[in-house]
Amino acid sequence: MNADSDFDHEEIRQALAAATRKLLDSRLPEGHWEGELSSSALSTATAVLALAVLLRNGKERLDRPLLTTCRSLADQGTTWLVGNRNPDGGFGDTVGSPSNLSTTALAWAALTGVGSASRQALDDTRAWLADKAGGLDAEALAAAIAARYGEDRTFSAPILTACALAGVFGPGAGAWRRVPQLPFELAVCPPQWFKWLRLPVVSYALPALIAIGQVRHRFRPTRNPLLRLIRSLARRRSLELLQKIQPASGGYLEAVPLTSFVIMSLAAGGRADHPVVVRGLDFLTATARRDGSWPIDTNLATWVTTQSLASLAVGGGLESRLDVEERRNLRRWLLDQQYHSLHPYTHADPGGWAWTDLPGGVPDADDTAGALLALRHLGGGDAESSQAAGAGVKWLLDLQNTDGGIPTFCRGWGRLPFDRSSPDLTAHALLAWSGWQQDLPPRLRSRLQSARRRGVDYLAASQREDGAWAPLWFGNQAAPGEENPTYGTARVLLALNRLSREPDFPVEGMRGRGIDWLLDGQNSDGGWGGAGGVDSSIEETALAVQALADALEVAPAPGGLTKAPLEVAISKGVGWLVAETHGGRRFQPSPIGLYFSKLWYYERHYPVIFTVAALGRATSAG
Q: Quick check: is 363 in a domain?
């Protein structure tokens, strides 16, 4: 490190050792990582309202023990919500998040629907909403939510449906006037048609499309007699599909909000005893926390495991940190998470990995790339790993969009969020492809080389004029547009640093601009936030330090940049990390994670994982 740093090499090594031990100690007895997502006011609100609707509509259909469970969970969730309001009366996605329109609207609906919240809590929440949305009527709220989500109705329709079901828009069909009708009848069409049907929701939202579309049709059917007949005929078949794609856990995507929207919609539509509802209630019961809250998703076990392995492998240290048996068990666990058949939900081909080891997961690009890299770090020379990697590489190749970028789940139904290309996903795929290209059969290797060129072209086209890249799955609540170009730029630079070693990829120009952007975005305290001038966090500082230290080690002077600015920035960033984490022993997570439809979360493991990678790379680069 820079000689002027207040922290010597030994102090950094001690912090790295402490952080590494903390990361290793957080494994499950089975040897992998599970993680812990933050409790979510949004998830808790949707679960509470789903339970309230069940209690209201299931008295004659559900047995007494189920009703007792619903009442107990709803009461606990209500208590948690009231106790975790922000001082302004609104609600944020996490306990560390500022109030936002979506979560506050859902909390208002839940507290109203359950009927047991204090008047003061309701009055404060109503006042916040009225101020931000310009009113509490359906028209004002619909306009405000539409401004946040635009053409994507994946989350705007469920929010308005929840408000209508809670009774806050008044009685009768008029309450549904501003709730958009989702075309649930299209769900019975062949899946191959979906990308051409231009559905107003993204690919993962079929359960919401069906359930919310049906309840809206029940309370305010269309006046068009032909369309009304088609929708009536499609109800049974779409419900059969809804039941078919429900995972064994009962939770769609292992997500509390999505599952709750399905439960409340079916219950309000006269189907409180439907098997989908009963299994969904089992899921809510299993995922409720002791304090009465729910997380946004059950866990990110596959994701945090692959990211932990990548972090521990920085600097070639995986073999010194995990013994032969531990590495063998992790390899076996990862191989067991790969999908080997057509996914019943998204119809994704075999070969991919999801974010979780639970049955509600869906294969996606980021986790498939992460798993491929983790297998490489774990050795990957055996026949089974090579075969799994070949299937994973092909899965990503088949996912690549015509613009050269990589989307999340599929090649896209349109240009809605999560069905379009993203720089961070593309960079991750490029890293994974680079790790396995020499082990592939000639025909697949040839196809891969072409895909890599197109991926690099996409990164060049998606780089902003200031040199940054914006990611899809991470953001910063205080940054302009709630984006996180620090995360995006750092992740892309890791891929470009790797590609800069190969003469076939002239990436130095955009790599240099990305490095310049990170250098310019460093705060005066030595850390980084989601963008320049945003408060520093452990996660974002660690990401920036790793990317810059990696750049220094791989090729120190892109575009004429001298080593000195990089060394100074890395030294200051490392100093901030060591001080902020109390020498690698204390980690305060920040809500930089973005879940579906701009839902914020933090993950307990993220700051530890990123710090181990940053200090490991800074040590090896120094």
A: no
Q: Check: CB of residue 303 under 8 Å from CB of residue 355.
A: yes
Q: Tell me: pLDDT of 6 over 60.
A: no
Q: Do 2 and 74 have their domain in common? A: no
The three state secondary structure string of 259-322 is: HHHHHHHHHHCCCCCCHHHHHHHHHHHHHCCCCCCEECECCCHHHHHHHHHHHHHCCCCHHHHC
Does residue 118 sit in the same domain as residue 12? no
Q: How far apart are CA 588 and CA 538, in angstroms?
A: 8
What's CA 579's distance to the chain center, in Å?
29
Dihedral pair phi/psi, residue 422, rounded to 5°: -145, 140
Residue 622 CB-density burial (10 A; 0-12 exposed, 13-18 middle, 19+ buried): middle
Nearest to 207 by CA among 175, 161, 163, 169: 161
The total number of structural domains in the chain stands at: 2
The whole-number average pLDDT for the span 71-84 is 95
**Judgement on whether residues 112 and 6 belong to the same structural domain of the protein:** no
**For the whole model, what pTM was predicted?**
0.93
Backbone angles phi, psi at 518, to 5 degrees: -65, -40
Name residues whose C-beta falls within 8 Å of residue 121's C-beta, 6 or more positions apart in sequence: 82, 85, 111
How does pLDDT run across 317-333, given as a tens digit for each residue?
Answer: 799 999 999 999 999 99
Higher-confidence residue of 342 and 315: namely 342
The answer to whether residues 73 and 198 belong to one domain is yes
The DSSP H or E segment spanning 601 is strand 599-601
Q: How far apart are CA 400 and CA 368, in angstroms?
A: 13
Contacts of residue 83, defined as CB under 8 A and 6 or more positions apart, other chains included, come to none
CB distance 49 to 260 below 8 Å: yes
The answer on 94 and 64 residing in a single domain is yes
b/e map of 564-600 (b: 16 or more CB within 10 Å)? eebbbbbbbbbbbbbebbebbeebebbbbbbbbbbbb
Record the tokens describing residue 341, joined without a space: 């058949």
Q: Under a CB-based contact definition with an 8 Å cutoff, are residues 329 and 28 in contact?
A: no
User: Which has the closest alpha carbon to 281: 7, 59, 50?
Assistant: 50
If asked whether residues 96 and 183 sit together in one domain, one would say yes
Those residues with Cβ within 8 angstroms of residue 137's Cβ, 6 or more apart along the chain or in another chain? 169
3-state secondary structure 63-129: CHHHHHHHHHHHHHHHHHHHHCCCCCCCCCCCCCCCCCHHHHHHHHHHHHHHCCCCHHHHHHHHHHH
Residue 175 lies in a domain: yes
Give the DSSP per-residue string, 180-210.
Answer: ----GGGGGS-GGGHHHHT-SS-GGGHHHHH
Distance between terminal CA atoms of the chain? Answer: 5
Tens digits of residue pLDDT in 488-497: 999 999 999 9
DSSP conformational letter for 249: T
Q: Are residues 127 and 19 in the same domain?
A: no
Distant-in-sequence, close-in-space partners of 294: CB < 8 Å, separation ≥ 6:
39, 40, 43, 44, 47, 77, 256, 284, 287, 288
Q: Which amino acid type is present at position 201?
A: V
| Distance from C-alpha of 114 to C-alpha of 78, rounded to nearest angstrom | 8
Output the six-digit token pair for 474. Answer: 């991470």
Q: What is the pLDDT of residue 325?
A: 95
Q: What residues make up the domain containing 46?
A: 39-295
pLDDT bucket at 3, cuts 50 / 70 / 90: very low
> What single letter denotes the amino acid at residue 76?
Q
**Is the Cβ–Cβ distance between 351 and 394 less than 8 Å?**
yes
